[in-house]
Amino acid sequence: MVGLGGSLRDGSQTERALRLALAGAETAGAETVAITGSELVLPFYDATDVDRGPEAAYLVETLRTADGVIIASPGYHGALSGLVKNALDYIEDLRGDERPYLDGRAVGLASIAFGWQASVATLAQLRTITHSLRGWPTPLGGAINSAEVKFDEAGGCSSEKAEFTLRTIGAQVVEFARYRAGR
Q1: CA 148 vs CA 21, 66, 76, 166, 177: distances in Å
Q2: Range 16-25 average pLDDT
Q3: CA-CA distance, 59 to 76, in Å (whole number)?
Q4: Which residues pair with 35 in a beta bridge?
Q5: Which InterPro entries match (predicted)?
């Protein structure tokens, strides 16, 4: 299971939310890896340039082998961050695979923004992008208002409801991956 997201700020609220969702996946039995923050600083995606630097190649290969993905994006001005969007654009490199794009994979989604409007709009965009990439968004998505909910360095959350939502997203990705694998 791959967790993708966060912002350039180490320990951002979005990265901490992503880690709670990944903890939910781990509790459900998944092995997880997080690609966050500075690991997402990649050249702008260019489909005509087939040379990938080590960071982009790692991202693409990790997504290629993943049975499930969790994406968490901050909501900036009512939209997902450019950092996360550019990383998602690299999924285009999977177009010729046996499992193209995110085909047949569960994708858990969470958006974290300072206000409900940006958080909900960002979650809707993440769902649209996931559908376009042939992924299966989990039934539960997380729209987190960081004006009301805080995540601490120890992995805690000030809202039991938000923590439950994020952990459930992780568990749903694992459940779907097992279902698809016939386990």
Answers
A1: 18, 33, 17, 15, 32
A2: 98
A3: 23
A4: 4
A5: Flavoprotein-like_sf, FMN_Rdtase-like_dom, NAD(P)H-dep_reductase
